[in-house]
Automatic annotation (TrEMBL):
Organism: Sulfurovum sp. enrichment culture clone C5
Descriptive protein name: phosphoglycolate phosphatase
UniProt GO molecular function: phosphoglycolate phosphatase activity
Cellular component annotations (GO), alphabetically ordered: cytosol
The protein's enzyme class: hydrolase
Pathway, per record: Organic acid metabolism; glycolate biosynthesis; glycolate from 2-phosphoglycolate: step 1/1
Organism placement in taxonomy: Bacteria, Pseudomonadati, Campylobacterota, Epsilonproteobacteria, Campylobacterales
Length: 207
């Protein structure tokens, strides 16, 4: 079946934000008078669908406005030094655009942080849609972001494919009945996943 759209997760899939993500979470924790967590502990839990991330990271039942404010505050001050695209991502995005795919991002990041990051990296203008946690109110693994993108593009679920690096991404795709590709250069390790950007590009261009 011919695909019309490729939807990407952002952190760990397109953007190597491991340093910034860990530091931003610890920045919030410090302001909440919580002890710092080791970076590896944070990154190993980012895509862990068995936990409530607000509870694990901030000892809260759900994410609060103060969490977003502090997290975005750190991102705004440091994304210029700590963020980078994974090798080959920009070339892949441009080739997909040349093949007339509509491309989108579905990220659990807050909109302000996501747009600042993508703008800094010089990639935001290449996406036809960017849908974030605070655009829908329910992050992945709920399918709301993917549904919103399908509606914006006026396409059916079988006409899209979602690319991500974590179990939350896969669950969101399954919940939305969208085909999924797992990649293995992000924050988690998977046995059955695409191992490099060139391989991902070659696979996507077959659709």
């Amino acid at each position: 079946m011919k695909k019309k759209s490729v939807i990407f997760d952002m952190d760990g899939t397109l953007v190597n934000s491991s340093i910034t993500l860990a530091n931003a979470i610890n920045y919030v924790r410090e302001h909440l008078y919580l002890p710092r967590l080791k970076s590896e502990d944070i990154l190993s839990r980012v895509n862990d669908n068995s936990i409530n991330p607000a509870e694990y990271f901030y000892k809260a039942k759900s994410f609060l406005p103060i969490h977003e404010k502090l997290f975005s505050e750190y991102y705004s001050a440091h994304h210029g030094k700590e963020l980078e695209l994974y090798d080959g991502i920009m070339d892949m995005i441009l080739e997909l655009k040349n093949r007339e795919f509509k491309i989108a991002i579905a990220t659990n990041a807050y909109r302000r942080s996501a747009l600042e990051s993508l703008t800094h990296l010089g990639i935001v203008e290449h996406f036809d849609s960017v849908v974030c946690f605070d655009d829908v109110g329910k992050g992945k693994p709920e399918p709301d972001m993917l549904y919103k993108i399908l509606e914006e593009f006026s396409i059916e679920s079988h006409e899209a494919i979602f690319v991500g690096d974590g179990e939350r991404d896969k669950m969101a795709a399954d919940n939305a009945n969208i085909d999924f590709i797992m990649v293995n250069w992000g924050f988690t390790d998977h046995e059955d996943a695409i191992g490099c950007v060139d391989s991902l590009r070659d696979l996507l261009l077959k659709y």
